[in-house]
Amino acid sequence: MDILDVLPSNFGLVIFTYLYSWIMLAYLAVKVGSARKKYDVQYPTMYSDKEPVFNCIQRAHQNTLEVYPQWLVFQTIAALVYPVAASVLGAIWVTSRFSYAWGYYTGDPAKRMRGAYGYIGYFGVIILSISIALQLLRVF
Predict the structure, then answer these.
(1) Nearest Cα to 63, choosing from 132, 122, 137?
(2) Conformational region of residue 43, where left means phi above 0, alpha means psi within -120 to 50, and beta covers everything else
(3) Which residue among 4, 41, 87, 136 is the one 20 to 30 A from 57 at the CA level?
(4) Taking all residues of the chain, what is their mean pLDDT, rounded to a whole number?
(5) What is the pLDDT of residue 30?
């Protein structure tokens, strides 16, 4: 059996959403690397005692990495049954991580909330995953 016969026909959209998330993660990583040079924060030091803006840049990346595995799991579960909806929700979440980071990069941590709309995408794929679990369990 060919995997192309098993996956939903619109699963290609999901793959592009994953690629978009990879671009986002690479962007955040490059920003941290550049900030390390600018603020002279050497490896393996994670945070600076002197440069709060560096810490904001680092936290934007770190927080994204903290939630990324869970997002991947729920994104994948949702996409297996609802590929278009999952792709839209995933694109919302990924785009919000840019907004979150750009707000954080200002040095004012409160401005990271510019990316709060990402919860629509994050919780959206979680809700779709719960729906799929309930369907599998024949609850509805």
Answers:
(1) 122
(2) beta
(3) 87
(4) 97
(5) 98
**Predicted confidence band of residue 2 (pLDDT cuts 50, 70, 90):** confident
Q: Which of 111, 107, 104 minimizes the C-alpha distance to 53? A: 107
Q: Tell me the residue type at 95.
A: T
Chain segment 91-108, per-residue pLDDT in tens? 999 999 999 999 999 999
- The CA distance from 41 to 44, in Å, is 9
Q: Which residue has the tokens 């629509």?
A: 120
Alpha helices in 40-109 (DSSP H): 52-81, 83-104
Look at residues 27, 19, 17, 51 and name the one whose alpha carbon lies nearest to residue 37: 51
Q: For tokens 């924060």, what's the residue?
A: 41
Chain-centre distance for alpha carbon 74: 11
